[in-house]
Amino acid sequence: MNETAQVKINGTVKELSGAKLKVGIVGATGMVGQQLIRMLKDHPWFEVAVLAASKSSAGMSYSASVEGRWFMEFPIPPAIGKIKVVDAADLDAATEGVDIVFCAVSMDKAEVLKLEDALAKKGVFVTSCNSANRLDALVPMMIPATNGDHLQVLEAQRKARGYDTGAIIVKSNCSIQSYVLALTALKDFEPAKVFVHSEQAISGAGKTFSTWPEMVENVIPYIGGEEKKSEIEPLKVWGTLTDKGIESVAVPSIKAKCVRVAVADGHTAYVNVQFKKPVTKEAILAKWEAFTETVPTRGLPSAPQKQLYFQSEPDRPQPKLDVMRDGGMAVTIGQLEVDEDNWVRFTALAHNAILGAAGGAVLATELAVEKGFVFRRAQTKVAAKA
Catalytic pick from 150, 174, 258, 351? Predict the structure, then answer.
């Protein structure tokens, strides 16, 4: 596409300098890669130009590479289906002509670190859906409606690593989206202790019921490493910027239990939180209602119409009814109760593969563009920063 891409921020239309930004997807054939195609196929700022996957898929059209394992409910867009898949290990091919790479690969940590560093050194802006870089103090771990200011660390990251126009940001774990956003809206009440029970959908493991029939009518009360991530990662998301990078906060303390349940999409968190300051049900609901107007992502192409929805019905939220709210980019909250000693209980639901992975990654990248942190490969700044 050669048309100029328009950027609409809070009702004001601005233009990127030139055509749409070209993007690549490394790990394009997997579950998150397919969700990235959902988010990018009609994007007003970004155009999919490169699709990379394992060597076994290289040389095939994208449609052929996912034949029999296309998991989305919409057909493969013809223009994307015709793209020839390249080997993700061929960095020249994976980055040819692109400004941004979304990385969603199934590799061990050392391999991911090496790959994402090499991509950034090629001069592309890397948005990672992998876990390897999440706790690096110089890598923003994004829930963009919460911590858009963490993008400021990219200047130090580029200087320390010699990335020039390249950079790395990373999406946080899918399990924490719902309760981190809900608690961010309540930060004025100072959360002190959090206990969360997370029931996680099978798409979080990259599976469907056809590929994982053992999960039908089943619960697996263990997800390796998930509880530690759920306890540690929010503290970095809420962290502060220092001269050494992003420093995690010490409070609140978080204890988590994570289980896999027979649900296709949507992670549901049952949250108990004690606040330092007095709270009422009415005050909490008011904070949740007003939250959308305070977030830095408001008005971006992939941002939900409303970030937090509250359902007053006693049996909500439910994945079947609520997980695709605002295209899977919103959080639905229900079952709010306020007890003595400032203990509060609520249930929060978010789409793990959209808001928690691909959609959140695209939204974080949009924010990076809008704030001036993404460059064209020719080193021309493209952001619409005021």
Answer: 174
